[in-house]
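USER: Study each token:
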Amino acid sequence: MSSETILEKEAHYLSGWLALFLWLLALAGVIWLFLGSIVQRGEPPVAAILGLVLLGFLSKGFVILQPNIAGVLIFFGRYSGSIRESGFFWFNPFCKRQNISLRVVNLNTPTLKVNDMAGNPIEVAAVIAWRVNDTAKASFEVEDYASFLAIQGESAIRAVISTRVYDGDHDGRNSLRGDLIAVARMLTETIQLHVELAGLEIIEAKITHLAYAPEIASAMLRRQQAAAVIAARQLIVEGAVGMVKMALDKLQADGVVVLSDADRIHLTSNLLTVLVSESETQPVLSLSR
């Protein structure tokens, strides 16, 4: 038989100051009865002794909760409710109280080795900002919600990383390295789905370390350098061709010189050599007439 999901509810409690006032009145009455019986009979009455024992037991219900600290109450093995407010309170002393922090916590995941969508092994680590949202689920649905988050966070990271490649197209779209904002959003949503059972809220999740695995890092670095060189040379060639065309058109339009096809070819070759060459070119002057 499947267990029923426990949802958070507000516990029954009183203001601690009101309960303390009533408790002190009862204590004063018990002491008055105790002293009066001593004076009249020379021995304390049973009612006064029982009253002191009862007041001592009722004092167990007083609790002081700091901001963002919740008290989960358990009444004879059953969930009774949660106190999420901060202050001084009194609850049923038969209940067992368990404090749970509602403050934001950072989790730094270990560096994981994961294959991206292209099958390349990469190293990735993330930081996850989270807090408890449902105290009942965090207390009763999982054994240890912090450990649960750590394991489920690693699983979510592997699931997200495997859906993208490390490097995308020329502008970095649809890649891990070039679209970190979208990856962080996807990572946050995925982790939230994984830890919903534990009543946790994922505030944000960001990649803190992203690199190729050491065994392929050098090869991928050479690949990136080659791609950068090819892109740069392509830009240089495109610019050089445009400059040569502009120069030939300008000479022809201004009538500076009349160029034959052979002259145009020769001039184009010289200009491209000068513009595209990576080293400084040396002019060669012809002395023939």
Summary: Helices lie at 16-41, 46-58, 135-140, 145-161, 180-195, 214-254, 261-276. The chain has a mean pLDDT of 82. The longest helix spans residues 214-254.
